[in-house]
Prior knowledge:
Layout: H1 4-9, E1 20-26, H2 29-38, E2 46-52, E3 71-77, H3 89-105, E4 110-112, E5 116-119, E6 122-134, E7 137-147, H4 165-169, H5 175-193, H6 199-207, E8 215-220, E9 223-232, E10 238-242, E11 245-249, E12 253-256
Helix pairs in contact: 3-5, 3-6
The protein binds biotin (BTN).
Biotin binds next to helix 2, strand 3, strand 6 and strand 7.
Amino acid sequence: MYSEDELERGLTTQVFGRRLFIYDSIDSTNTCAKIFANKGAEEGTVVIADYQTAGRGRFGRTWLAESGSNLLFSIIIRPTYSTDKIGLLPFFVAVGIANAVETVTGMQCECKWPNDILINKKKCCGILMESTSQQNNFDYAIIGIGLNVNQKEFIGDLEGIATSLSSEGGREFDRRNVFSQIMSSLESYYTDVRKGDFNTALKEWKARATIFGKRITLTQAADVIDGIAINLAADGGLVVETETGQRVFHAGDVTIAQQ
Ligand code: BTN
């Protein structure tokens, strides 16, 4: 369980996390953050919970995380540029988190397209971005972050695929410390991103990506596409050289065929 005081004391940010809503248990921090955003909550507002009864992942999947062991939170942002850049937002978030995790744990993070973070090839963090807009202008975007911190066991579909900071680092980590590092790191990247400048975030994301130049399989519902990952497109899509030429994808699950 978090106390507001403890979380606030660790923060060195000006905006991110300065307005905090803390829950022991909630359906989904993203769902709750949307309600606050619709009521006008300011940029940087965070909803954080110890446990989610209906945590959501990409493609309508369920996000399962043990109570009291992990970081489950959502941040409200209100970008002022057009929604053309929406596909770039997850990259700044992934880099911000990777940077914070590396600082706290000393372990190297890998960024996996479009928005996963891996340690030793296993997923420790997922990001769910949701936004609403009117005529190409954002009302708000919700950055939902699920970071496995001290969870030890991953069962069922997650076995062998998911991990946590403690599983990889061999010790427990203070969730409040990890949280405040993430807030600082995200806020520092957001200074540029807020103005629509993603250059630094994209450069650092690419430096942590291992996909480029490799043969991959991209799965989109029933479609399975094989090819070589070439680059990121200007809008954040993945450029893949396929049998029928270069194609750009904006969603999907990627596996690397050759490591
Ligand atoms: C994914 O990899 O599929 C994204 C997972 C995102 C999970 C986080 S946990 C906090 C926030 N609230 C949710 O319901 N989902 C996100």
